[in-house]
UniProtKB/TrEMBL annotation, chain A:
Membrane-crossing residue ranges in chain numbering: 6-27
SUPFAM superfamilies referenced in this protein's UniProt entry, alphabetically: LemA-like
Keyword Membrane assigned: yes
Entry keywords, A to Z: Membrane, Transmembrane, Transmembrane helix
Protein name: LemA protein
TrEMBL record, chain B:
Transmembrane segments: none
Organism the protein comes from: Allonocardiopsis opalescens
Coiled coil spans: none
SUPFAM superfamilies: UDP-Glycosyltransferase/glycogen phosphorylase
Record flagged with keyword Metal-binding: no
Glycosyltransferase subfamily 4-like N-terminal domain segment(s): 14-173
Protein's UniProt name: Phosphatidylinositol alpha-mannosyltransferase
Assigned keywords, A-Z: Glycosyltransferase, Transferase
Keyword Glycosyltransferase: yes
Single Gene Ontology MF annotation: glycosyltransferase activity
CDD domains: GT4_PimA-like (cd03801)
GO BP: any one term: carbohydrate derivative biosynthetic process
């Protein structure tokens, strides 16, 4: 009887430890899951910002308010960015678009010339917002990726495969420096 | 005739298109035309007297690399002013599809337009959003010229229509006469003599570029050098320092690598060799190196690729050997080294054949294109595209 009671006591301890551990694991898994969701949301926002930037650039290029050389340069860079699907190619194309945008917008007289034409001020503002948005969205996305990658490197997470089948998210590395623009 | 030439790339950076525009301008001036060139350029950089700056070139990602182009409102204004002040009979733009001065000139010009397409650009613009802007400008061109068959094919595929083929010219007079480089014997001085004077084989071009075929020549030289203790090899052109890594150590001292040299030394190099070898493996749409060597009157031994065969008139102006075959190269070189008469004949043949590629001849062909488009597109028929017409009025 004595022995039985002692065993029961030990078992209770073991069970409660196991229970606590399971609770801890599920909490860790939940945290990781939230991080993955955050990465996905940030990625969607980044994609939307990039698509929006290409769209604004294309609109500007086809607006007839620019000289044809600038229009062709912008349109081709935006087109390339939109068409690139393979990740490396996309990073390169988006970086090129940033470079072309800076080269075009930072030219002397660009602001006065564009805003002096009908519809120009609106396009100029939209362009500034779109470039800025890419810059912000990419920082938030890379921030989420960094935290997620850190969490997934933990021993417990790797041992128990808490991240399931979710892919390890990749950083999005581009030159997204927005052009210097008048407010 | 008052001719306005438009160069899309910055003048200070050496390049095929810039060189072409400069040499064409000089040749046209030589033919008595009144020529003005507009080109992107840094304001401080000196330009030749016939050229004006169309604005500072801006480095910008274009076609997968960084190009120095001039675009924007200021460049457009400069082009318009140049067109107005020049009052040209003909405006001749180069690479009009590049987003730079040439495209701006197409857009703004009222004079008849001629365009020269230089590159074989694999990029399709058919579905591009820029197609509309390009199309409007390019449709105004009355005479289209391609510098090579490859450039013509690309042009036809991507833009439709057709173009006449007028190759790059060579300033033959610049190459015809020159002293050999110091320490080099010079060619065609009769027999090559005994062991100490075994002749010189020359190569010019990028040494690290596979299709220039230098490895074929180096392998052939291995065989030739063992049979001819006095034979030397002269290599001219940019490339890595380890080009001779695969060559026998004993032979290396008989190979001289000059690297990149000045224009003047390049001319002297052509005059320093007994046999000039062009071992290209293909891909050369038009061999500038070959026509330069021909202008210098070199005895040429070249790969039997289609472009070379046609420039060398099926072997009349240079010996041909099987592409990529070092043994065939060895046989050809031995024959040429052994027979001074053969070298004389090939040299004379080269000098005769290259006349078709002399800038004077080429510029006259270009001027013929001007003449052709001139009456057809005389000013203002109704419905012609006005530059920058406001929407709703055009």
């Amino acid at each position: 009887m004595e022995v039985f009671h002692a065993l029961l006591g030990d078992l209770a301890i073991v069970v409660s430890v196991l229970g606590l551990f399971a609770f801890y694991i599920s909490w860790r898994a939940g945290r990781l899951d939230r991080l993955h969701t955050r990465v996905e949301t940030a990625r969607a926002a980044l994609d939307a910002a990039l698509v929006r930037r290409s769209a604004v650039v294309l609109e500007l290029a086809s607006s007839g308010r620019l000289d044809p050389a600038t229009a062709v340069l912008l349109a081709e860079a935006a087109q390339d960015a939109r068409r690139a699907d393979e990740p490396d190619a996309r990073e390169l194309a988006e970086s090129h678009l940033s470079g072309v945008l800076r080269a075009v917008v930072e030219q002397d007289g660009f602001h006065q010339e564009l805003t002096g034409r009908p519809g120009g001020p609106e396009l100029y503002t939209e362009l500034r917002m779109a470039a800025k948005q890419v810059y912000l969205a990419r920082r938030f996305y890379n921030d989420a990726v960094a935290l997620t990658r850190l969490a997934r490197r933990k021993r417990l997470v790797r041992l128990l495969r808490l991240s399931g089948r979710a892919e390890l998210p990749d950083f999005f590395e581009i030159d997204d420096e927005p052009p210097k623009m008048a407010a | 005739m008052r001719v306005g030439l438009v160069c899309p790339y910055t003048w200070e950076v050496p390049g095929g298109v810039q060189l072409h525009v400069a040499e064409l301008a000089e040749a046209l001036i030589g033919l008595g035309h009144d020529v003005s060139v507009i080109t992107p350029s840094d304001d401080e950089a000196p330009l030749p007297p016939y050229a004006v700056s169309g604005g500072k070139a801006i480095p910008v990602p274009y076609n997968g690399s960084v190009a120095r182009l001039a675009f924007g409102f200021l460049a457009a204004a400069r082009v318009r002013r140049w067109l107005r002040e020049g009052a040209f009979d003909i405006v001749h733009v180069h690479e009009p599809a590049a987003p730079s001065l040439s495209l701006l000139a197409c857009w703004a010009a009222d004079a008849p337009l001629v365009a020269t397409f230089h590159t074989a650009n694999p990029r399709s613009r058919a579905m591009s959003a820029s197609a509309a802007a390009l199309q409007t400008a390019l449709e105004k061109i009355s005479g289209r010229i391609a510098v090579s068959e490859a450039a013509r094919t690309t042009l036809v595929e991507h833009l439709g229509g057709d173009a006449v083929l007028i190759p790059n010219g060579v300033p033959v007079a610049k190459y015809a006469q020159s002293e050999p480089l110091p320490g080099w014997p010079g060619r065609l001085d009769g027999r090559l003599g005994g062991a100490e004077r075994g002749g010189v084989i020359g190569f010019l071009g990028r040494m690290d570029e596979q299709r220039k075929g230098l490895p074929v020549l180096l392998r052939a030289f291995g065989t030739l050098a063992r049979r001819r203790p006095g034979l030397r090899l002269l290599l001219v052109g940019p490339g890595p320092s380890d080009v001779l890594a695969k060559v026998d150590k004993g032979l290396r001292e008989r190979i001289t690598v000059l690297g990149k040299v000045s224009e003047a030394d390049k001319v002297r190099a052509y005059h320093s060799v007994d046999v000039f070898c062009a071992p290209n493996l293909g891909g050369e749409s038009f061999g500038m190196v070959l026509t330069e060597a021909m202008a210098a009157g070199a005895a040429i031994l070249a790969s039997d690729i289609a472009a070379f065969r046609s420039v060398l008139r099926d072997g009349e102006a240079g010996e041909l050997f099987r592409v990529g075959d070092p043994d065939a190269l060895v046989r050809g070189a031995e024959r040429m080294l052994d027979e001074p008469a053969l070298r004389e004949r090939l040299s004379a043949g080269a000098r005769a054949a290259v006349r078709a590629y002399d800038w004077t001849t080429v510029a006259a062909d270009v001027a013929a294109v001007y003449q052709t488009v001139l009456p057809a597109a005389r000013p203002s028929e109704p419905g012609r595209l006005a530059p920058a017409s406001p929407p709703g009025l055009g």
